[in-house]
Amino acid sequence: MDTLRKQKRKLKKQIKAASSEETNGLLVIWRQLKARHSALSRAESARKKRSQKRKNQERFISLQDSSSSNPKSEEFTKKYTSIESVEEKVEGDFGEGPSDRPSPRSEAEVGVGLADTAQEQDSKSVEDQEDKGL
């Protein structure tokens, strides 16, 4: 690859210095070198991609093998393979749900706010009806 690059550079310099009769012949040679260099570059790039892909696959498989032989992961899969065991774990960690937690506001505060807004809306609708009747 390096020799092809050097040959192409050398030919470019010769083309610039050559007469018009020699230029056409040198351009043909330069194009041939360029085509060969491009083909070799593509082949090398493809080879590198294949080897990198193979290395990545081997590394992935080795990581999978090492994690499956991990005793902690085996213990986890044995312990939490059924739905019941997972539900028990969740209930133990989080409780049964929102009913277990205390409410941030008391029931009286919640009821008072709703009743006030309902009464205000009723009185506004009565006033609106009276205004329309006049």
From TrEMBL:
<feature type="compositionally biased region" description="Basic and acidic residues">
    <location>
        <begin position="121"/>
        <end position="134"/>
    </location>
</feature>
<feature type="compositionally biased region" description="Basic residues">
    <location>
        <begin position="1"/>
        <end position="15"/>
    </location>
</feature>
<keyword id="KW-0548">Nucleotidyltransferase</keyword>
<keyword id="KW-0808">Transferase</keyword>
<feature type="compositionally biased region" description="Basic and acidic residues">
    <location>
        <begin position="86"/>
        <end position="108"/>
    </location>
</feature>
<dbReference type="GO" id="GO:0003964">
    <property type="term" value="F:RNA-directed DNA polymerase activity"/>
</dbReference>
<feature type="region of interest" description="Disordered">
    <location>
        <begin position="40"/>
        <end position="134"/>
    </location>
</feature>
<feature type="compositionally biased region" description="Basic residues">
    <location>
        <begin position="47"/>
        <end position="56"/>
    </location>
</feature>
<protein>
    <submittedName>
        <fullName>Reverse transcriptase</fullName>
    </submittedName>
</protein>
<keyword id="KW-0695">RNA-directed DNA polymerase</keyword>
<feature type="region of interest" description="Disordered">
    <location>
        <begin position="1"/>
        <end position="20"/>
    </location>
</feature>
